[in-house]
Amino acid sequence: MFYYLFSAIKLLCIWIDLILLSLLVYLASWLPYTIRQWFFPILFRGWCGALVRGFRKQLFIHQKYQGRLPKQFIAIANHPSCFEDFGMPYLFPKARFLSKKEVSNWWIAGRVARAMGVLFVDREDRDSRRQAVQKLLEALQAGMSVALFPEGGCKGRKIHLPFLYGAFDVSLQSSVPIVPVFIHYEAQEDFEWGDQHLLLKIKEILLSRNPRTNYYIYDPIDPKQFEDKDAFCQYVQNLYLHWQDRYLN
Asked: Fewer beta carbons below 10 Å: N end or C end of the chain?
């Protein structure tokens, strides 16, 4: 009895914390950039952490790389669920993410994403994809890190091939290494986002009986060892297929 009582009280506190942080980050997103630039990434990471707790999940970070990550990088990850939309920014709060244009119209999340400098792309428009590559290059030239999902969207629990060339093209042009992240949800069916409505998928994740989420960060990949984006892309695809066999199959 006491276990369930304390669990209910804890969950209530978590949701109150999430609501208050959501309000704070939303209001802060309207501040001028010259003011919010000093604290907004920290506040944003706190909000992402509150979302993880609000979903009643545990995010485990596995640092599989040697030494330290470079100061500047291109982070990529597989995209099986909607959970990594705030799980990845929790890992890399200072990186500029590439997201589908529809996100910019979401109420709170869209406003916060714009304030964080998220780059938006129309996946079905070739010109938009070309412009997105240019914006990613400009962000890297300004000394920032960037992050994106090379599958080109949420494609299910298994690795969706072929990867899009964007990340590899940008890495080769900028000489900035790629940091691959493999995302593994132990409750694969509960987390997999297929054709369900977003609210239904959120409900399924909330009710999942296995709260463990694993984010494996691997060694940075130097683009200088590849002749072209095809070879680079193929090499990374093979890594993800290997990790899929290890963690998913």
From this structure: N
Parallel, antiparallel, or unpaired for β 212-217 and 178-185?
A: antiparallel
- In this structure, what token pair is assigned to residue 88? 């990845």
* Residue boundaries of the structural domains of the chain: 58-247
Residues with Cβ within 8 Å of residue 165, at least 6 apart in sequence: 229, 230, 233
Place of tokens 């589908």: 100
Q: Which residues contact 237 (CB under 8 A, 6 or more apart)?
A: 159, 161, 162, 163
Of 115, 54, 61, the C-alpha closest to 92 is: 61
Per-residue pLDDT reduced to its tens digit, 94-145: 899 999 998 888 888 899 999 999 999 998 888 998 999 999 999 999 999 9
Give residues with Cβ within 8 angstroms of 79, minimum separation 6.
149, 151, 153, 154, 155, 183
